[in-house]
Amino acid sequence: MKPQAERRAPIALITGASSGIGEAYARILASRGYRLVLVARRADRLDALAGELQTAHGIEAAPLPADLSKPGDTERVAACIGELPPLTLLINNAGFGNPGLFHEIDPRSHTDMVAVHCTATVRLARATLPKMVSRRGGAVINVSSIAGILGEAGGPMYGATKAFLVRFSKNLASELRGTGVGVQALCPGLTRTEFHDGPGYEDFDRQGYPNWLWMEASDVVIESLAEVERGKVVVVPGLRYRVLLALVNNPLGRLIADRYTDRRAGRE
Ligand SMILES: NC(=O)c1ccc[n+]([C@@H]2O[C@H](COP(=O)([O-])OP(=O)(O)OC[C@H]3O[C@@H](n4cnc5c(N)ncnc54)[C@H](OP(=O)(O)O)[C@@H]3O)[C@@H](O)[C@H]2O)c1
Predict the structure, then answer these.
(1) Domains of the chain from N-terminus onward
(2) 241 among known catalytic residues
(3) Contact, 240 vs 220, CB < 8 A?
(4) What is the spatial distance between Cα 130 and Cα 140, in angstroms, rounded to a whole number?
């Protein structure tokens, strides 16, 4: 993508664009005429997706391979944002789970999770916002999780890093009120992606969760983008999850959440 090119098409940078929700953002935004910068570790996937979207929609799409657990790679992405025209959307979506007990999991996975979910999000938002604010437009979408609201889901680190994203997004949105720049914390529930194929999920049983709980990545993204237009900050896609949340965020719900934590920790 040409640096500082004066073009009118909107531009989005998406992290975690090589699969799942990030890939769905890329496909939907390409169909809406966005120019794209696609970030993830798997360069072959990014190349193939960028080529396909360029051919299908006549847009520009640039792969930017980077491992956001590595500070040097995150700085490289931030520098790239500095050279681009102002982004219309920054989508901080890269993420992973690390199932298991905190004290048994590879400690590197915990610190990588902080780096990918929190540090990279903060750094890329900081790189993006000056131009958005001076142009009085654009939005930052931080992909959190329902676990960011129900902190127990997904374990100590996953829930905590996703809760950070919710709090960070709310505080940033308050600070940016009146600037024309939006911030969203997207909090999906179970979504059909490669998320549950990662390390540690070998025994994860998708059938163990009722079919109606699973959402398609494209539906999650369509709700997210619609809510950017409306300026909603914390977005929980799917009526089923908004109802579940209302049921669980009360004393009985907390009891159920505590039982879930007990089960995870092998106490029952
Ligand atoms: N699926 C769900 O049920 C669910 C529910 C709530 C929230 N979420 C959140 O949604 C987001 C997207 O996940 P998904 O469900 O679409 O899962 P996914 O299909 O596994 O996608 C995860 C993406 O993150 C990228 N990524 C992971 N580690 C990275 C790193 N160190 N550096 C750069 N990119 C990295 C992956 O790309 P590479 O492997 O190529 O690097 C991939 O593109 C995550 O933040 C996840 O926490 C998912």
Answers:
(1) 11-238 (3.40.50.720)
(2) no
(3) no
(4) 12
Tokens of 169: 């997004």
How many other C-beta atoms can be found within 10 angstroms of the C-beta atom of residue 264?
16
Q: For a ligand 1 pocket test, name from 64, 141, 193, 213 the mutation site with the most ligand atoms within 8 angstroms of its C-beta.
A: 193
The position carrying tokens 């990662």 is 198
Q: List residues near ligand 1 (CB under 6 A).
A: 15-22, 40-42, 45, 67-69, 93-96, 116, 143, 145, 188, 190-191, 193-195
Direct distance between the N- and C-terminal alpha carbons of the chain, in angstroms, rounded to an integer? 54
- The 8-class DSSP code of residue 135 comes to H
User: What confidence tens digit (pLDDT) does each residue in 39-50 have?
Assistant: 999 999 999 999
Characterise 140 by phi-psi region: left (phi > 0), alpha (psi -120 to 50), beta (else). Answer: beta
The CA distance from 261 to 155, in Å, is 8
Q: What is the dihedral of CA 177, 183, 189, 192, to 10 degrees?
A: 160
What is the 23 CA–ligand 1 centroid distance (Å)?
10
| Cβ partners under 8 Å of residue 39, min gap 6 | 13, 14, 15, 16, 17, 46, 64, 65, 66, 68, 77, 94
pLDDT in tens, 228-244: 999 999 999 999 999 98
Name the active-site residue from 158, 201, 209, 260.
158
Q: Which two tokens stand for residue 191?
A: 């979504």
Predicted model pTM: 0.94
